[in-house]
Design brief:
14 helices; globular; about 375 residues; binds NADP nicotinamide-adenine-dinucleotide phosphate; six-stranded antiparallel β-sheet; 3 domains; NADPH-cytochrome p450 Reductase, Chain A, domain 3; Rossmann fold
Length: about 375
C-alpha cells in the first residue's frame, strides 16, 4: 500500500526540514549534554519506520571556517569548485560542502611537499603508515597542521581539492510514525572536548544544538535500517539494551508497540552516568513502566557509586528471567557505543545463557549464533 506513496526526497535530494524542538535532556549540572530534537517532515511525503535513522547534512562552525580563511589569507569571496564541480564562494564551500575537521592524507602530503619541516607527513601516504597517521590525527583537525606549518600557502582551489567532502551524519530515530507521522525525534549527545589546548566541537551535534534556528531549514533524508526492525509477530517479547543515546530507537519501539497494541512484553536496560542528572526521558519511561507498556525496566547509573555499574551487570543479575524470555522466543536488541559496550553486552548475553541455561561456554556461543541467524539478535551500534 505505502509503496504507492513515494517521496521525491532522498540523500541526493534532501528535504529542507524545520527544527521545531531543541531541548536539553541532561540537567545543566551534568558533565554531558544530550539533547532531544523534533524535526518537522510535514509536506515532504517522507515515510519512516521505527529502527530507521535520519540523515542530517550539517554545516561547519563559522568561527572555525573564519580561522582557516585568516590563516590562509583568503577573504572567503574567492570562487572555488564545490565537490560536484559547481563554482561557489570559498566561505560557503567551507561551511557547507567540505569537511574542515578531519584532515585528509592528501592535505598532509601537500603540506609536506611545501615545507621541509613537515617531511614526516609524506610517509602518511604509504599503506604501512596507518598507525603513525592515526596517532598524528588523534585530536587534530584541518586547522592544526596549517597552524603548525605557518609558511605553507595554497591557492583557494588547490586548498579545497585537498579536503574531504562534508558527509551527512546518521542518527537513530527516537519516535514512531504511528504517533508522530509528520515529525522525527532524535536523541543526540553534543560532542565537545578539548585537545592540544583547543576546544573541539562535533560538527553535526553542535550544528543542531547551537546553530540551527527555527527559520533556517536543515537538509535531511531517511536512511532505512531493514536489519533493525521490530519482530513481525506482535506477540514476541522484546528485550532492549540502550545505554546513553542508545535509548533513541527503543523510545520509538515502545511508542510503536503501544500504538499497535502489540501483545508481546517489553524489557528495557538503560544506563547513564548519574540518575539525577542523566536519566534521559525519565518521566516517559517511568510512565510506560507504570502503565505496563514496559513490563520490566532496569537502570545502571555508572557513576552513582564507587564501582562502575553497567547495563550488562544488570543483565547478569537478572539472568534467570532473561533466559526464560529468550527461551520464549524474545528478540534481543542493542543500541549505542560499538567500541566497548556492545561487545560487553554480547559477552553478558552469553554468560546469561551459560548461568541460567546450564550450558557450556561453547553451547552458549552456539545459542547466540543461532539467535543471530534467526535475526532475533539485532544491533544498531556506532
Ligand atoms: P555513552 O558514552 O555510551 O555512555 C552511556 C553509559 O554507558 C554511561 O553510563 C557509561 O559509563 C556507560 N558505559 C561506558 N562503557 C561501557 C561499557 N563497556 N559497557 C556498558 N556501558 C558502558 O553515552 P552516549 O552519550 O550515548 O555517547 C555519546 C556518543 O559517544 C556515542 O556516539 C558513543 O558511541 C560515543 N562514544 C564513543 C566512545 C569512543 O571511544 N569512541 C566512547 C564512548 C561513547 P561511564 O561513562 O561512567 O563509563
Amino acid at each position: 500500500m505505502s509503496s504507492l506513496i513515494t517521496s521525491s526526497y532522498s540523500r541526493k535530494n534532501p528535504f529542507p526540514s524545520l527544527l521545531r524542538t531543541n531541548r536539553r535532556l541532561t540537567r545543566e549540572d551534568s558533565s554531558k549534554e544530550t539533547r532531544h530534537y523534533e524535526v518537522s517532515i510535514a509536506g515532504s511525503g517522507l515515510i519512516y519506520e521505527v529502527g530507521d535513522s535520519l540523515g542530517v547534512f550539517p554545516q561547519n562552525d563559522p568561527l572555525l571556517v573564519q580561522e582557516i580563511l585568516e590563516r590562509l589569507g583568503f577573504s572567503g569571496e574567492e570562487l572555488v569548485p564545490d565537490p560536484s564541480g559547481e563554482m561557489k564562494p570559498l566561505r560557503e564551500a567551507l561551511l557547507r560542502y567540505y569537511a574542515v575537521t578531519e584532515p585528509s592524507k592528501q592535505l598532509l602530503a601537500a603540506i609536506a611537499e611545501k615545507d621541509a619541516t613537515a617531511s614526516h607527513f609524506a610517509i602518511f601516504s604509504t599503506p604501512e603508515a596507518k598507525e603513525h597517521l592515526e596517532k598524528y590525527l588523534w585530536g587534530r583537525e584541518v586547522i592544526d597542521p596549517l597552524l603548525e606549518h605557518p609558511q605553507v600557502h595554497f591557492t583557494p582551489e588547490e586548498f579545497v581539492k585537498l579536503l574531504r567532502k562534508l558527509q551527512p551524519r546518521l542518527y537513530s530515530i527516537a519516535s514512531s510514525p504511528k504517533v508522530y507521522p509528520e515529525e522525527i525525534h532524535l536523541t543526540v549527545a553534543t560532542v565537545q572536548y578539548e585537545s592540544l589546548g583547543r576546544q573541539r566541537l562535533g560538527v553535526c551535534s553542535t550544528f543542531l544544538a547551537n546553530r540551527v534556528s527555527e527559520e533556517v531549514p536543515v537538509s535531511v533524508f531517511i536512511h532505512s535500517a531493514k536489519h533493525f526492525r521490530l519482530p513481525e509477530d506482535p506477540s514476541r517479547h522484546v528485550i532492549m539494551v540502550g545505554p546513553g543515546t542508545g535509548i533513541a530507537p527503543f523510545r520509538a519501539f515502545l511508542q510503536e508497540r503501544r500504538a499497535t497494541g502489540a501483545t508481546g512484553k517489553h524489557w528495557l536496560f538503560f544506563g547513564e552516568q548519574r540518575r539525577e542528572t542523566d536519566f534521559l526521558y525519565r518521566e516517559e519511561l517511568e510512565a510506560m513502566h507504570h502503565e505496563k507498556t514496559l513490563h520490566r525496566f532496569h537502570t545502571a547509573f555508572s557513576r552513582d557509586q564507587e564501582q562502575k555499574i553497567y547495563v550488562q551487570h544488570r543483565m547478569l543479575e537478572e539472568a534467570k528471567e532473561l533466559y526464560s524470555w529468550l527461551e520464549e522466543g524474545a528478540y534481543f536488541y542493542v543500541c549505542g557505543d560499538a567500541s566497548r559496550m556492545a561487545k560487553d553486552v554480547e559477552q553478558a548475553l552469553q554468560k546469561t545463557i551459560e548461568l541460567a541455561g546450564g550450558r557450556s561456554p561453547e553451547e552458549a556461543l552456539t545459542y547466540v549464533e543461532a539467535m543471530k541467524k534467526e535475526k532475533r539478535y539485532r544491533k544498531d551500534v556506532y
